Amino acid sequence: MTSSRFQKLHFNIVIHTCIIIYLYEWQSSSSSSALFLTVAAQNMLCIKLADNVVVKIKSPWVSWFKASCFPAVASLMLTPFIVYKIFPPEIKHSADAPFLAKNKLEEMAPVKRDEGIMLGTMLVTIALWIDG
Length: 132
What we know:
By secondary structure, the chain is mainly alpha-helical. It contains 5 helices and no strands.
């Protein structure tokens, strides 16, 4: 295969992969935003509008979660399948992948001090977001 044909094939694979990642990210972001009341501003706006028209919602966060749980989780579970069917991968099996992954993991250095601090900061941030 000539170099230009290889570059064109590589470019097409990269573009194809980017489209798949974008579509999945867009749909999963929309689903997770709909799932939790406090994630997106429009969710709080809906509660405020309902409150203005004298619709009293007891425990709005729990009510919102219960109402949005099935559609959001179903969407999160079905999206990868739908994207896979619309844009099937060109390479579905690679015998070398486990070997290459093992070699790359062995080449990586252990977690550095700065990376450990970042990991700890993220875990504390998530814990405070959930329980704070």
